Amino acid sequence: MAHIEHEADRLALIRSLDLLGLQGAPDLDRITQLAAQALGAPMVLITVVEEFEQRFISTVGTDLKATEREISVCAVAIESQGVFEVEDLSQDTRFANFRTVTEDGMRFYAGAPLTLSTGVSVGTLCVVDFEPRRLSDAQHIALRTLADLAVNQIQLLRMIGRRDPITGLPNRQQMSADLAIRKRRSMLGSMQLVVIDVLESGASNRLTQALGPGPAESIVRQAAFRIADLLPVDAPLYHVGVARFAFFLSDEDGDGLLGLLSAMRKRVTMPVHTHGLDMAASFHAGLAPFDGDSEDDAMRMAVTALHAAVERGVPWSHYEAARDASLRRQHTLATQVDAALHEQQFHLAYQPRLDLATGQVAWVEALLRWEHPTLGAVGPNEFLPIIETTTLMPRVSQWVIQQALRQLADWDALGHRIGVSINLAGADLEDGRIVERAFALTEQYGVEPDRIEFEITEGHWLQGEAVVSQLQTLRTLGFSIALEDFGSGYSNFAYLNALPATAIKIDRSLIDGMEADGRRARLVRTLVMLGAELGLRTVGEGVETEAQLALLRRWKCNEAQGYLISRPCSSQDLRRFLIERVSTPASTS
Questions:
Q1: Pairing between strand 559-560 and 452-457?
Q2: Where are any strands of DSSP class E within 158-271?
Q3: Tens of pLDDT, residues 179-233
Q4: Is the pTM of this model over 0.70?
Q5: Closest to 241 measured CA to CA, from 158, 297, 306
Q6: 30 with 60: CB under 8 angstroms?
Q7: SS3 label, residue 186
Q8: Residue 216, SS3 per DSSP
Q9: Is 197 exposed, middle or buried (CB count within 10 Å of its CB: 0-12, 13-18, 19+)?
Q10: Best label site of 60, 156, 470, 538, fewest CB within 10 Å?
Q11: pLDDT at 335
Q12: Which is it for strands 503-506 and 537-540: parallel, antiparallel or unpaired?
């Protein structure tokens, strides 16, 4: 049983190190050539003994690349502690019937196992002759020395791709290989994986743009060894990202782990002097438990915890299954948006905006809804941020525009002439086609552009020249532009000057409670007055009480939207609402 486990470990190591990829390496070829000269052998091989084959990654005296393992003397030699030598293969019952002996004429064999630093033998350096012979003591030493040289060269060649060039630490691939070896050796009990970020990406990018990569690399390098100095000797540190490190400890060390992290944070965030500057690394960590059944998922879990720490502004965070399930659900939804479009899982709801001067409905906001076949109703606050990060956002928005305009045309036919407001995301303007798509749909459904309002929300995406140009073109064609959630951010006032807005929608966070909060009420009144001064329509969002509605009407706000007036509803329910409003006096809600 122990031999079987050892063999599985050995074969896995051959695959994880991709030893067969070393075939033809010049550094190994020089070793076989030296062995042929030093030992006077017509054939020298560096072999890798696999499950069914013996592969040759460097040869002298043959063009063969492999033979069957069942006729491989090396398969026996790798089990020896020193040089394995057979003076005459034809006289040894173990090998006398091998085809290489009976047909190819092999007689002499001497091989030294190639044993890596892990203690696992993966192949041999062997010499072959076609006459019986024996090596002298000096030749035995030479063969063993050359085998050691071959091992060192193999490990050096394979360290490329297994070590980070900045810190010299083992990388993520090496960590995966080490975990796999520990698992095969039944050394993975209950463990904790810790992943640490020491430099925020924004800070790193700014530093690199200003001074080149040197300072950021210096910070990462110094932070790495501050962490490594605090780790137990049996817990190697791995460099698993640009400024990200990982280590794992037995759960038995768990009681001291938080103390260790606290010490690491203190050490890592101490000033780093580099390139004439005193700078400091940051520190965020994620912790995830794992065992022999979950090591493949451990890195993902720890990174999930790390991002939770960053989002919450805390030094570290433990893995949370509930948060992970939410992220996985988001991924699932993102992959099913295309199917939702094709299978008509999306539909629109409409929320009316009340004209406070006439008491009638002049505009409705089109709101996207998703009825998932297995998850049921998925809220827009959950799925819209997901869609906005994908390339499908423009397609979804085009579907929304098309459905909304088709509905407008239907309402027109029934005598209800209103406008529709549609939300746009940054991704909708990235490909530069929103103008042509929107205008083509107005012509297709016979709806005037001035009855279409596009709502945009504050964000960095609004600052690009191409975005502003498209919004200006939409405005020139007659479309309206509304700034949504106005008053909730720091930059919306600057947008009033930069963007061709026709309306502002005062954020619900300001409307909520303003009837009992004089400061908030004065702020909303000021925004309404500002809108009037600039010739902008003003819309109060999130109106839920009669007192809020009365204040907006008193301040000459143009429109109100919220549950007091109507919840989002179907097109049929909205039509009934429109009919009811025809006979409602302007002085009532």
A1: unpaired
A2: 191-197, 238-241, 244-250
A3: 877 777 667 778 899 999 998 876 667 777 766 777 788 888 888 889 999 998 8
A4: no
A5: 306
A6: no
A7: coil
A8: helix
A9: buried
A10: 156
A11: 86
A12: parallel
DSSP state of 515: G
Q: State the Rg of the chain over Cα.
A: 36
- Beta-ladder partners of 368: 348
Whether residue 89 is predicted with pLDDT greater than 60 in this model: the reply is yes
Q: Is 407 exposed, middle or buried (0-12, 13-18, 19+ CB in 10 A)?
A: buried
Collapsing DSSP states into helix, strand and coil, what is residue 511? helix
The two structure tokens encoding residue 562? 């919220």
Answer whether 297's CB lies under 8 Å from 304's CB.
no
Q: Helix, strand or coil for residue 231?
A: coil
Cβ-based neighbour number of residue 59 at 10 Å: 20
Distances (CA, A) of 412 to 398, 401, 405, 417, 479: 21, 16, 10, 5, 18
Closest CA to 218 of 277, 154, 171: 277
What is the residue type of 402? Answer: Q
Is residue 151 packed enough to be buried (19+ CB in 10 Å), middle (13-18) or exposed (0-12)? buried
Q: Give the DSSP per-residue string, 50-102.
A: -SSEEEEEEEES----EEEGGG-SHHHHTTSSS-EEES-GGG-TTTTT-HHHH
Which of 402, 298, 388 has the alpha carbon at shortest distance from 347? 402
| Predicted confidence (pLDDT) per residue in 346-390, tens digit | 999 999 999 999 999 989 999 999 999 988 998 888 888 888 877
- Model confidence over 406-418: pLDDT tens digits? 999 999 998 889 9
Take residue 588 and report the two structure tokens written for it.
């009532």
Identify the CA nearest to 298 among candidates 380, 180, 450.
180
